[in-house]
Amino acid sequence: QVQLVESGGGSVQAGGSLRLSCGASSGTPRYAFSVLCMTWFRQAPGKEREGVASIGGTGSASYADSVKGRFTISKDTANKTLYLQMNSLKLEDTAMYYCAAAYVSDGCSLKNTFRYWGQGTQVTVSS
Fold first, then answer.
1. What's CA 65's distance to the chain center, in Å?
2. Which residue from 7, 1, 2 is spatially nearest to 98, judged by alpha carbons?
3. Under a CB-based contact definition with an 8 Å cutoff, are residues 43 and 10 in contact?
4. How many CB atoms lie within 10 A of CB 90?
């Protein structure tokens, strides 16, 4: 069982930056965390959930077109924490952001099915 807790959301003006964190529970061994496929999703009111960025055990990352060049996903295995650095934020980035994780055998991408989810952290971008 992997428990995930997000933090770092808040309110920021357009063009600003935020860094989201997602920590895994103490019961998750570091070696298990290191191989997890982990992804940031977001969901705005009235919209479908969208995969934003994913990172696999090898460190390879993939991004939605809407955030390429602005967001960076990273994984700190020593601290069992997933990050999402968000720069040049836009109004349309406003959403609840969730981290999710799964053990996968066929590659990590935004299209995987994720078993473990955090509770979400709100990001609000204003003009």
1. 15
2. 7
3. no
4. 14
User: What is the rounded CA–CA span in Å between residue 26 and residue 90?
Assistant: 34
Which pLDDT score is estimated for 41? 98
pLDDT digits (tens, 9 = 90+) for 70-82: 999 999 999 999 9
The C-alpha atoms of residue 11 and residue 16 are separated, in whole angstroms, by 10
Is residue 14 within 8 A of residue 91, CB to CB? The reply is yes
The C-alpha atoms of residue 112 and residue 103 are separated, in whole angstroms, by 10
- Integer angstrom CA distances of residue 119 from 8, 36, 100: 13, 18, 10
* Per-residue pLDDT reduced to its tens digit, 99-125: 999 999 888 988 888 999 999 999 999
